[in-house]
TrEMBL record:
Keywords: Ligase, Membrane, Transmembrane, Transmembrane helix. Signal peptide: none annotated. One of its GO terms (molecular function) is ligase activity. The keyword Ligase applies. The chain crosses the membrane at residues 12-32, 52-69, 131-153, 173-190, 202-229, 241-261, 329-353, 365-381, 387-405. It is found in: Membrane. It comes from Floridaenema fluviatile BLCC-F154. The keyword Electron transport does not apply. It is a multi-pass membrane protein. This is O-antigen ligase family protein.
Length: 430
């Protein structure tokens, strides 16, 4: 019975993670390949199926959490702070311009969060990485052949003509999944040096897909991750301020390069005589003005970018309807105000520090996963909105990573992660 239950839970989690990638919506069939075409949304029959899958995923994971009540509560309390954001999203209907939508999507965000709790309470970090390898490997291979089979819908037109988007609505959605897949396969391959051919193959297909999307942000972030690998390893070996300082410079430098690369036409315009600017800088400028109007609590979760919402003036200036601010931090402030942004940055900083402690306690390559994921999550939000989304694998994984790291204090004696599972003094765990 236990073997059958374990098999079911593993398959269920694999399927659920695949669902949270958004691939199963086949959205590119029903979305214009030109992001600025401003075409009316087309009815997607797969959304009805996705809704049923969503209910199955969240009800099943809730059932397992309740069935293992004590374990679930203990794991949930490893990082109480991570629960503040989904609760705030749910409560934001109280001041939202579209209270019904904010409440409904806030509830789904809370469900996405407790799915992350389920994964953290049921599987080890190594098991999580292995499952992510399967999920993102399937996503990469399927997206490759899907694009070859349906180039008319899977390859973008307009400003991004020739960029692969696969079954997703936009190239950057595929690109960030492929960067995540490259990180996962890189860590898995380094963790199994004796038989890594298939894993290096997974890394290769993810890198190829990143290149085919034409996303400069994705390439720069992937390059940054590879550069950071030896320095993060040194964090384990050397207790010195030099290594964290170098890591900080690399992250800041890469963030600046990413910003300049993504917005170089706008920057050139700003340096010349075009006082009106264009592109994302204009969008961000107007968005910041809108933030100042509702500084503390924002416009309500997922309500700003709706027809009739605060984004109408931005759409008028831009000449098309961007679905978000192309910056996760600005988008967070629009949704949940400066309070929400402060909570998010605090969550990220606290977990980055915890991931360093976790890295120094562990001995395996897979113990690098938390610090790499938090780095990925932080850096991608400079140009995309990857912070807190309902039905999003990215937010769910941040919760999983946060709750998978036990509360520990660094001690002089280095111990391995397996030893940590049997936590004995002098380690304090919670």
């Amino acid at each position: 019975m236990n073997k059958l239950l374990n098999l079911f839970e593993t398959k269920f989690t694999l399927f659920s993670l695949l669902f949270l990638t958004g691939m199963l919506r086949f959205a590119s069939f029903y979305t214009s390949p030109d992001a600025k075409a401003d075409a009316e949304p087309t009815y997607n029959p797969f959304d009805s199926i996705s809704s049923l899958i969503q209910q199955f995923v969240y009800l099943t994971s809730l059932f397992f959490l309740i069935a293992r009540g004590k374990t679930s509560v203990r794991v949930a309390l490893r990082d109480p702070l991570v629960w503040t954001l989904p609760i705030l999203t749910m409560l934001s209907f109280l001041w939202s311009d579209f209270p019904d939508i904010s409440l409904r999507k806030g509830i789904t965000t809370l469900q996405t969060t407790y799915f992350g709790l389920y994964v953290a309470s049921r599987f080890t970090i190594k098991q999580q990485l292995q499952m992510l390898g399967w999920v993102l490997g399937i996503t990469a291979v399927f997206s490759f052949f899907f694009t070859l089979a349906f180039p008319g819908v899977a390859i973008e037109a307009g400003a991004n003509a020739g960029s692969w988007r696969g079954p997703f609505t936009q190239k950057n959605l595929l690109a960030r999944l492929m960067v995540l897949g490259a990180i996962v396969f890189l860590l898995l391959a380094l963790d199994r040096p004796k038989s890594p051919k298939l894993l290096w193959g997974g890394f290769g297909i993810c890198v190829l897909m990143v290149i085919l999307t034409g996303s400069k942000t994705a390439l720069l972030l992937l390059f940054t991750i590879i550069i950071l690998l030896p320095f993060y390893k040194l964090l384990r070996a050397k207790d010195t301020i030099i290594i964290p300082a170098i890591v900080g410079l690399i992250i800041i430098g890469s963030s600046v390069i990413t910003f300049v690369t993504e917005n170089w036409l706008t920057i050139l315009a700003a340096l010349g005589r075009d006082a009106t600017l264009s592109g994302r800088t204009t969008l961000w400028e107007v968005a910041l003005e809108k933030i100042s109007e509702r500084f503390w609590l924002g416009y309500g979760y997922q309500s700003f970018w709706l027809d009739g919402g605060g984004a109408m003036i931005i759409w008028k200036i831009e000449g098309y309807k961007p679905p978000h601010a192309h910056n996760g931090f600005i988008n967070m402030a629009l949704d949940l105000g400066v309070i929400g942004l402060f909570l998010f940055l605090t969550i990220l900083l606290v977990n980055y520090i915890r991931s360093i402690i976790w890295l120094r306690i562990g001995k395996t390559v897979t113990d690098l996963w938390p610090i790499f994921y938090i780095t990925f999550f932080f850096m991608y939000n400079h140009s995309e909105n990857t912070i807190i989304e309902h039905n999003s694998i990215f937010w769910s994984l941040l919760v999983t990573v946060s709750l998978s790291m036990r509360r520990v204090k660094l001690v002089k004696r280095q111990i391995t992660a397996p030893e940590l599972l049997n936590s004995q003094p002098p380690i304090n765990s919670g």
